[in-house]
Amino acid sequence: MGPLLERVIAIDPSIVLTAFLSTTIVFGCFTMAALKAPTTKFIHLGGTLASASLILLFAVFFVNYQVILWAGLALSVGFVLYDTQMIVEKSRMGDNDYVWHAVEIFIDFVNMFRYIMILLADKENRRENENRRKRD
């Protein structure tokens, strides 16, 4: 994350705060959706998310960079839904390992933050390039 943060701050420091606030809002909304959903509605996403992750891994060689970023963000959101419901179900069954549960959620948050930050930085780069072309 360090080199990525340095690169994004070099582009525009406000991107980091915008990405963090956006991630917090999206993460909070999808966490609440997972908590309010019927008991095992999103647990069945596990196989689909794993398959989609594998497909995304191989798609890196054939698909546009923007498609990879948006698909990765969508997968991150799916994992927030899945992991939140898995943690709730594990807790109901007696697994109270709150440290590992917090780590799982933190990893989901960081992945989502990374994708949003890259998308915002990429958008800012394209806008700067267009402005340069117009001036030249």
Could you explain the architecture of this structure?
This protein is mainly α and 136 residues long. The chain has one domain (2-130). Helices cover 84% and strands 0% of the residues.
Summarize the structure.
The protein is 84% helix and 0% strand. With 136 residues, it is mainly alpha-helical.
List the helices and strands and how they pair.
Layout: H1 2-11, H2 14-36, H3 45-59, H4 65-92, H5 98-135
Subcellular location: Membrane
Main location: membrane
Protein name: Bax inhibitor 1
Mean pLDDT: 91
Largest sheet, strands/sense/barrel: none
Tally of alpha and pi helices? 5
As for the number of domains, it is: 1
Q: What does the radius of gyration come to? A: 17 Å
Using DSSP, what is the number of strands?
Answer: 0
Range of helix content = over 70%
What structural class is derived from the secondary structure elements? mainly alpha
Sketch the topology as an H/E string, one letter per element. Answer: HHHHH
**Roughly how many Å apart are the termini?**
35 Å
Overall morphology: elongated
Strand content: under 5%
Low-confidence stretches: none
Protein name: Bax inhibitor 1
Family: Belongs to the BI1 family.
Keywords: Membrane, Transmembrane, Transmembrane helix
Subcellular location: Membrane
Task: Provide the descriptors you would attach to this structure in a database record.
136 residues, mainly alpha, elongated, Bax_inhibitor_1-related, enzyme binding
